[in-house]
Design brief:
The chain has helices at about 10-20, 25-40, 40-55, 65-75, 80-90, 100-110, and strands at about 60-65, 100. By secondary structure, the protein is mostly helical. The chain has a two-stranded antiparallel sheet with strand order 1-2. Helix 1 crosses helix 4 (about 65-75) and helix 2 (about 25-40) packs across helix 6 (about 100-110).
Length: about 120
């Protein structure tokens, strides 16, 4: 599958937000999902979609731990510790599927500073 091109700054921002995402309550996740689905600008949604597609090497609509590791390597130029990936998946994988789906990615990578 051909590699998608994505703006490096957008990808780095998404990775930073993905790594730092924390949502302890189901209501908070639901609220953030609503915001990501309905209130982000078309441009922000498109940018995040491009990053997701660039990371989704298999094109199956979900990110494995290996996909995220590859994204870090491709856009940050460094390897992220598997312990950090495990922590990220615990925080982001709301349905405990073992993968980060598109909606979970959108919620975790949105820049919450734009909401204030």
């Amino acid at each position: 599958m051909a590699k998608n091109t994505v703006d490096e700054t957008t990808a780095i921002s998404a990775l930073k937000n993905l790594k730092n995402f924390k949502a302890d309550k189901h209501m908070e996740i639901a609220t953030l999902t609503f915001i990501a689905s309905n209130m982000l600008t078309k441009s922000l949604k498109e940018d995040s979609a491009k990053v997701f597609k660039a990371f989704d090497i298999e094109g199956n609509g979900r990110l494995s731990k290996e996909d995220v590791v590859g994204g870090y390597l491709d856009y940050y130029g460094k390897v992220v510790a598997m312990a950090d990936i495990e922590t990220m998946f615990v925080a982001v994988d709301a349905d405990n599927s073992g993968f980060i789906d598109y909606t979970e990615f959108m919620v975790a990578t949105m820049d919450t500073e734009i909401l204030t």
